[in-house]
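Honest question from a wet-lab person: if I give you the sequences of every part of a complex, can you actually get the arrangement of the whole thing, not just the pieces? Trying it with mine:
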Amino acid sequence: MSRVTEHLHVCGDCSRSHEALKSLIIRMGNIRPVEAPDDLLEKINDRIKGQSILDRLREALSFRRIGFPVELAAFAASAILLLFFFNFFPPEEKDIFLKPGNGKAELVMDRDSSPAQTAENQSSPVQSVDSPSSEGQTNPHRIEIKLALSLTTQDEAVPIPSQNASYGNSLIGSTPDDIYLWQTDNDKKTEKRVISPDEVNLKIDEIVLSVEGKESSRENDDVSGYPAHLTLEIPAVNYRRFITRLDGLGALQAPPPTLPEGSENGSVLIQMDLAPPQ
Amino acid sequence: MNDKLDNSKSQDQKDDFTLIRAFQRGEKASFDALVLRYKDRIFNLCLRFLGDYHEAEDTTQDVFLKTYNSLKRFRFESSFFTWLYRIAVNSCKNKVKSLEYRFRKTDARIGLSDEIFDGFQSEHREDGPGSPASDLESKEIMNLLQKAINSLPPDQRSVVILRDIQGLSYEEITDITGFKLGTLKSRLSRARGSLREKIGDIL
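Yes, you can. This is the full assembly:
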């Protein structure tokens, strides 16, 4: 008779607790499977068909299919980029204010505003174009970042521990909880720790917190479980620190975009795509 | 007994691989065969994870749609079964996290639908299974049990469903979740402990 069984015979609390646990496991084991809806396959196929129609449309509209010359496509893309650039960063800086009057906002453009006029404007109840909703707030500058996650650790590969030796045959493990993920090399009979989805998410939490960011969405990749998309808003003054902290998470796919001058007082809306390494 | 089980699993895997190879060659019908093989198991996983029949149906569709889109890239390095389950568990976790789902669950206060109780066997009753009193009590217990499962954190929820409801082996669950065996056992222990605390009086 094992020591546990002996103890259960004499200890009422543990015995009751053990019985309740056994009863719980039996009850859960007795849950009979429910049949999936009859039309499930039909609905899945409908969704696949709907998706295929979209794919065909996308293919039909793609440049490759209609033989659009690459040079022409590159020229068009450059023209759009230039237009976009000059639209956002006009060569001459203008002070633009919204002036409320009779319930209607009026645009006021002032090229040569003197310091006195500026002071007057600041004290008057006008709002910057960037802040249509409330005083003192500006629309965040949008930045898109692509990052390849690095999952390697400094840990060395270790022999795969024998499960019996480590944990015995007990129903419930007693090892401390961890969030590690191990990659097994069956040929060499070793395993090496890699960064798990939980660890990546914790690192992101830490980075967001360190730059006083507000996260609006985080989506995980369904197949790998690693975070795939992240949207957050951070104070512009912390943007550089944010980029530096990303180093610990992976490699940027392109140099990080720089913020335009004068935007230090605003905020930055960062949309980040994260890709696990192949 | 174990050898028989292993042989049957190995045969299942061979059959899966045959169907996937056929799909990769362009035989779309073999995907239907895969859906028919796994639809009940995936649906039940989603049903217990989400605690809502219609959410489970939607999520099961999502899982197979993602499978369809990724199956061309399947490299036969793991079993199709664990790969499919991994997609299902991650889809359920994402669903639970999604704002829309949380809003619907808290705002509309959806009760547990009758379909979810269909799976509960009324056993260990003196007045016999199938009697109205027994059925009512079983439904009530199932209601409490499902609510207790819903209140678990997603990682604990997934391991308790995979192990205690779906009856998967520890090895299969570590393949699906990526947890080390020790992590898996401690999460399972915590999950069972929480469930016992929540519904201990009726056990």
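Two things worth pointing out. Chain A touches chain B through 47 residues (CB under 8 Å). DSSP finds eight helices and eleven strands in chain A.
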